[in-house]
């Protein structure tokens, strides 16, 4: 088992520094941002597939994800940040999360485009495992103090736009439960109490609005007091202008949740257990400062660069997750 150095900067902390530096030098009050989710970066299932096929799929997902980042970086004007809806890896082992973090950190530092994400169910270290590895590698976590579950719910501020990032895949140390926890609700209520426009990012959509007829595996039923309070407060909120969700692969949808505009994009590469996403897409938005509006600029198809290749790949075998050199 790989131990995580809890003194390392998390990906979130690195991105916050990059964002603040961009904001300090920003002259145009309007800016663009990008959203996508669900990649299963560097993963293939050697139980359901042959060893060779698993490795090929893992390479393909690697190529898809980095091609999505490259496509985002080439948007005009250059995005201020990328929002990511979770399921960056397949299993939240320290190995997979460090591999993911290293690739994204390199991109963030090279392009000066911040990258902020919420946890998906695949960020857990196993089906019912904890989110501790995610907490310590992706964050947010300040210094050497590991934040508890509310640390996976956080708020990002720009002068006129606020992002409320919610963990709706269950508490850090407990099994997966799709829905709104106490700390997610507290962060949401705090985040929408502002004169700024608000974007809410979460992994799993609630069964409401355009997602009401989706199965419970794809959208969580609004049954608990927290779930109901979230929907009620969302409906009444004047600040929330956009909700971004992923979790569901190979479907692009622009609809509503509690009367608010919602965009689904889980086309970041994950696809199915036996086939990566065929047509990866990034969702593009522009924040217009003058009238405080968020314009949906549409879905941008991504051409996958098949020339880039990882040096190694992590795959799931009967004996657990192993690292395999790419030859």
Automatic annotation (TrEMBL):
Calcineurin-like phosphoesterase domain boundaries: 34-249
Pfam families, A to Z: Metallophos (PF00149)
Highest rank taxon of the organism: Bacteria
InterPro entries for the chain: Calcineurin-like_PHP, Metallo-depent_PP-like, STPP_CPPED1
SUPFAM superfamilies the record matches: Metallo-dependent phosphatases
PANTHER family in UniProt: METALLOPHOSPHOESTERASE, CALCINEURIN SUPERFAMILY, SERINE_THREONINE-PROTEIN PHOSPHATASE CPPED1
Record protein name field: Calcineurin-like phosphoesterase domain-containing protein
């Amino acid at each position: 088992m790989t131990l995580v150095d809890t003194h390392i900067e998390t990906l979130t902390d690195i991105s916050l520094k990059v964002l603040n530096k961009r904001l300090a030098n920003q002259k145009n009050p309007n800016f663009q941002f990008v959203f996508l989710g669900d990649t299963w970066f560097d993963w293939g299932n050697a139980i359901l597939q042959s060893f060779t096929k698993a490795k090929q799929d893992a390479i393909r997902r690697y190529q898809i994800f980095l091609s999505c980042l490259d496509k985002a970086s080439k948007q005009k004007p250059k995005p201020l940040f990328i929002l990511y809806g979770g399921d960056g890896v397949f299993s939240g082992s320290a190995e997979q999360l460090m591999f993911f973090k290293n690739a994204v950190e390199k991109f963030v530092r090279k392009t000066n485009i911040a990258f902020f994400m919420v946890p998906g169910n695949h960020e857990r270290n196993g089906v019912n495992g904890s989110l501790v590895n995610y907490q310590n590698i992706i964050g947010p976590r300040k210094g050497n103090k590991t934040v508890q579950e509310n640390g996976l719910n956080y708020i990002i501020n720009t002068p006129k736009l606020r992002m409320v990032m919610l963990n709706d895949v269950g508490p850090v140390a407990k099994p997966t439960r799709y829905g709104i926890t106490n700390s997610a609700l507290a962060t949401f209520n705090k985040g929408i109490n502002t004169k700024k426009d608000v974007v809410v990012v979460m992994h799993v959509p609630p069964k409401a609005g355009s997602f009401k007829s989706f199965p419970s595996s794809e959208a969580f039923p609004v049954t608990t007091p927290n779930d109901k309070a979230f929907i009620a407060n969302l409906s009444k909120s004047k600040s929330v202008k956009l909700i971004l969700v992923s979790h569901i692969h190979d479907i692009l949808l622009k609809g509503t949740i509690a009367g608010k505009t919602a965009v689904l994009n889980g086309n970041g590469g994950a696809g199915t257990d036996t086939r990566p996403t065929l047509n990866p897409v990034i969702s593009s938005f522009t924040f217009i400062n003058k009238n405080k509006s968020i314009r949906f600029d549409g879905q941008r198809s991504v051409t996958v660069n098949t020339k880039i290749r990882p040096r190694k790949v992590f795959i799931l075998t009967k004996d657990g997750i192993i690292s395999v050199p790419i030859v």
